[in-house]
Amino acid sequence: MLFAVHCLDHADALARRLANYDAHKAYLAAGPVATVISGPLVAADGATMIGSLFVFSADSIEEVKAFNAGDPFNAANVWQSVSINPFLLRVDNRA
């Protein structure tokens, strides 16, 4: 099953985000929940990171919640809000 995870950063989180970026990427790569797609949300300038967006594949929302809670960005208090919802893929134009 797929799950969309939308995270918005605290206004003062950019330094914490950058300091924990390598640990965050390693966590996603080694985790028990498969990352389908992921990347930073950016401000209107197209460059300033203001959050994160993920689509994960997992057996349950509880798995995704636990995985997200263990993310180094969460531990570093980067995210102000996190929304996790089941996601039904209708269109995939990546191919």
Structure description:
With 95 residues, the chain is α+β, with helices and mostly antiparallel strands. Helix content is 31%, strand content 37%. It contains four helices and four strands. The protein has helices at 14-19, 21-30, 61-69, 72-75; strands at residues 2-9, 34-42, 49-57, 79-87. Strands 2-3-1-4 form a four-stranded antiparallel beta sheet, with helices on one face. A hairpin with a 6-residue loop joins strand 2 (34-42) and strand 3. The longest helix is centred in the N-terminal third of the chain and has 10 residues, at 21-30. The chain is globular and about 35 Å long. The mean pLDDT is 96.
SSE string = EHHEEHHE
**What's the overall average pLDDT, rounded?**
96
Question: Which term fits the overall shape?
Answer: globular
**Low-confidence region ranges:** none
Oligomer: single chain
Helix proportion range: 25-40%
**Number of H/I helices:** 4
Fraction of residues in β-strands: 35-45%
Which sheet architecture does the biggest sheet show? 4 strands, antiparallel
